[in-house]
TrEMBL record:
The chain crosses the membrane at residues 42-59, 71-91. This is DUF1003 domain-containing protein. It comes from Actinomadura logoneensis. PANTHER family: INTEGRAL MEMBRANE PROTEIN-RELATED (PTHR41386), MEMBRANE PROTEIN (PTHR41386:SF1). Pfam families: DUF1003. InterPro entries: DUF1003.
């Protein structure tokens, strides 16, 4: 029987149960490991282990050496460590990228709100300026009254002379 594309597949039961893990907990653990692997302490510990390993396998009696000169077992252990470190570091970077993306979106929406608020305040200030320019101030009224008083005095002076 061919499967139809317009219907979902039936769930297949596997013989072995699928392992269940919390992706968030695993992600936090991977970030802690990646953060530790990026420290000088890790480099010092790793260097100390390698120096001890090589020293033991060169200087110890032949019967006690577990990894003779080409140090194949050491190479295997370092390869295994690197094969686990790379995906853990990538997982930690992906989680950081996700956090950065969320932070970017929040910053962008906050900036849009700030721009909208600034435009609103600019319009309000412009409206207030227009309203204030139409209101007569005390100094303006005083100067206009003085001007009218001078005009009246000059008109009265012309009438008296005529």
């Amino acid at each position: 029987m061919t499967s139809r594309l317009d219907q979902p597949r039936e769930l297949r039961r596997s013989v072995l149960p699928r392992p269940h893990y919390d992706p968030e907990s695993f992600g936090r653990l991977s970030e802690r490991i990646a953060r530790f692997m990026g420290t000088a302490r890790f480099l010092v510990y790793m260097t100390a282990v390698i120096v001890a390993w090589i020293s033991w396998n060169v200087l110890a009696p032949v019967s006690l050496r577990f990894d003779p000169y080409p140090f194949i077992f050491l190479t295997l252990v370092l390869s295994l460590q690197a094969s686990y470190a790379a995906p853990l570091i990538l997982l930690a970077q992906n989680r950081q990228d996700d956090r950065d993306r969320v932070q970017y979106e929040q910053d962008r929406s906050r900036n849009e709100r700030n721009i909208a608020d600034t435009e609103y305040l600019t319009r309000e200030i412009a409206g207030l300026r227009m309203a204030i320019s139409e209101v007569a101030t005390r100094d303006f009224l005083r100067s206009e009254l003085e001007h009218l008083l001078k005009e009246l005095e000059t008109q009265n002076g012309h009438r008296d002379t005529a």
